[in-house]
Amino acid sequence: MSSVPAREQLRQRAEYTYKFNAKTGRHGWLRLTPAYSLKIVEELVIGHANAQRVLDPFCGTGTTALCAAYHGHEAVTTDINPFLVWLARAKIARYSPTSIEATRHACRQALDLVADRAVKPVSAPPIFNIERWWSAEALEFLRLLRAAIEHVTQPVTAARNLLLVAFCRTLIEQSNAAFNHQSMSFKGNEEPALLFPIDRGAVFEADVRFVLSGASENPVSAASVVLADSRALRPGLSGPFDLVITSPPYANRMSYIRELRPYMYWLGFLQNGRDAGELDWAAIGGTWGIATSRLTDWERPDKHFRSAHLTDVLRGIAHADNKNGVLLAKYVAKYFDDMWAHFCELPELLASGAELHYIVGNSTFYGTLVSTERLYAEMLSELGFSRIECRPVRKRNSNKQLVEFDVVAQWK
User: What single string gives the DSSP state of each residue in 277-299?
Assistant: First the structure.
């Protein structure tokens, strides 16, 4: 359906703010859809050519909706995080040659203002220990650049959105964040003497070129991004949908807000750490800050999902020889209760014969295997879905137990 050049534009749009650290061989902090996941999504979309409407209830950065739109489907995606909604809308938007050229012109204007220091820099975002993130020189550049982008563009315009997407790429490239292991660390903040000093403006200009290359060829069909809680989809969406392709948060206690906070602070989506904790508590699967402390008093609701297998899993985690076993058992229980609430939203939104694909990985807590795919299958069966399969997709790492699955089901 799409030409080869269009597929390349799809890849570039899917990786708008995706960075690769050549030294460590790891991808950058904003965890977008890597190449293998984009390949899975595209294969699923192509394999369902007759599906008119595609739903992704866990938007992330909108790659599923973007892919569906490139292949001629109407797509709708939702997320609870307003930053991700903004980014996904920027990715799926249609850009005219005029708007792309206006963005190039605005980029040149902004960099001229930065070079001449002809604009008042914005205040540094209130990130804790911000000096670990950026050197004084990098921080000054980013503050000037952020102010210059606002000066040369109007709010809610293609030029501003595209320049801000490029700004997200640049701010991580200029940071001291290290990606050589799963938890975050920082490189030293002292910049070594260089024979050729870093041309930060050239870095931003290259990021703008990359973003505009992805924006140069538009999707065939339209897609929409809705700010919504996946546990309460029906008030904001109109069905029916023929196909659901999504990758929900994993039960691994990773805070997605923590991963996104540098972007969210710089772009004004977060004002303080409490905002981050509140959003983490509202989302599925993440615990950080106040979200972790609230788990201590959290109790399962009366209408929680009942499963003998889940009960055994929770008992195994809670009784583990670790002082945090009870807390982590609550985390796992809340994760599956939240996912049960989400699955309960689907039947009224689906067409007869609609097919679901949930790409998700299992987890381990203190040696107890949490078979997420098996529990998803139990939930879908309980709701009346049929032809349920758990198809292994790939190993997640060297641990043979950790596998990513495509949980497939069909609505009656």
Answer: HHHHHHSSS---THHHHHHTT--
* Beta-carbon contacts of residue 105 (< 8 Å; ≥ 6 apart): none
pLDDT in tens, 128-149: 899 999 999 999 999 999 999 9
Could you tell me the CA-to-CA distances from 117 to 133, 144, 222, 294 in Å, in that order? 23, 7, 40, 46
- pLDDT for res 190: 54
Greater model confidence, 38 or 32: 38
Is the alpha carbon torsion for 23, 175, 208, 43 positive or negative? Answer: positive
1-94+218-247: what CATH class?
alpha beta
Encoded amino acid at 249, one letter: P
pLDDT recorded at residue 18: 45
* Residue-wise pLDDT tens digits, 387-412: 999 999 988 766 778 999 999 999 98
- Name, in order, each residue with C-beta under 8 angstroms of 102's C-beta and a sequence gap of 6 or more: 158, 159
CA distance 31 to 17: 9
Residue intervals of the chain classified under CATH 3.40.50.150 are 1-94+218-247
**pTM of the entire predicted model:** 0.90
State residue 309 phi and psi, 5-degree precision. -65, -45
Q: Which of 199, 244, 213, 195 is closest to 59 using CA atoms?
A: 244
Q: Can the peptide bond before residue 249 be classed as cis, meaning omega within 30 degrees of 0?
A: no
**Confidence class of residue 179 from pLDDT cuts 50, 70 and 90?**
low
Angle formed by the axes of helices 200-215 and 136-152, nearest 10°: 50
